[in-house]
Automatic annotation (TrEMBL):
InterPro entries: DUF1659 (IPR012454). Residues 16-67 form the DUF1659 domain. It comes from the Bacteria. This is DUF1659 domain-containing protein.
């Protein structure tokens, strides 16, 4: 059975400057609960959006697993 050792999340959004040039802005969170469900991670994203006032377009989940 595989065991998740670490769980991290990257939230990203696209910013446009006055000339219309796009750039990526990302926030990365590590050491999250390895038992978190996708719904809980979406809720976490919503909380971060409320705290920062930013809107993130993408939620990436990064899992580190041990394969036995």
């Amino acid at each position: 059975m595989n065991t998740i050792n670490q769980l991290a999340v990257t939230l990203s959004r696209t910013l446009y400057d006055k000339d219309g040039k796009a750039s990526q802005f990302k926030r990365h969170f590590t050491s999250l609960n390895t038992d978190a469900t996708p719904e809980q991670l979406k809720s976490f994203k919503s909380v971060i959006e409320q705290i920062t006032g930013e809107h993130f377009e993408k939620l990436e989940v990064i899992k580190t697993e041990t394969i036995n």
